[in-house]
Write a structure and sequence with these properties.
By secondary structure, the protein is α/β, with parallel strands linked by helices. The chain has one domain. The protein has six helices and eight strands, in the order ββαααβββαβββαα. It has a six-stranded mixed sheet with strand order 3-4-5-6-8-7, with helices on both faces. The protein has a two-stranded antiparallel ribbon with strand order 1-2. The longest helix has 18 residues. The protein is globular. About 25% of the residues are buried.
């Protein structure tokens, strides 16, 4: 019913958080535990963003598990509060992925990704969101979460 998302340990000369994060595979259980009984109550609930992040993370985890592959996904957080929701470890470079529930892109959403690019020298990242438009902002590909999860191998070739 739950899984642990391990911390990404390449510290880039930073003190990092090493505790795993816990996620539910089924966000309906989370909704039940938080008292959300109807779908229309979810979008106004204070935990909506975290529940959305949990759902997308679980879907990406299942993408790998259904293919018989150990999921190469992690999260990263340093002691100063910079956090990346997912790190997908690839042969080329670790890819940073931020997950946002909003339907319109907010410039503030890129803050941690910009920090990650500066820290690691990474050349690309992803921002998955609740909207419907695909776009690029600097080194970040902004993609609707449904499209990314369905076509992960198109966005990150050679994963499976």
């Amino acid at each position: 019913m739950t899984f642990q998302l391990p911390a990404y340990f390449n510290n880039y000369r930073k003190t990092i958080v090493k505790r795993p994060k816990i996620y539910f595979y089924d966000t309906a259980i989370v909704c039940g535990l938080t008292g959300i009984r109807r779908p229309e109550h979810l979008q106004w609930h204070p935990a909506y963003g975290q529940i959305f992040e949990s759902m997308v993370t679980a879907d990406i985890m299942k993408y790998f598990l259904h293919r018989g592959v150990r999921p190469p996904i992690y999260y990263w957080r340093d002691k100063t509060g910079h956090e990346i929701d997912l790190i997908i470890d690839t042969d080329k470079e670790p890819l940073a992925v931020e997950i946002k529930s909003g339907q319109t892109v907010n410039p503030e959403w890129f803050r941690h990704l910009r920090y990650w690019h500066k820290l690691t020298g990474s050349s690309r990242s992803y921002l998955l969101y609740g909207g419907t438009r695909t776009m690029t902002r600097g080194a970040t590909h902004v993609i609707p979460w449904r499209e990314f999860v369905r076509h992960l191998d198109r966005y990150i070739p050679g994963l499976t």
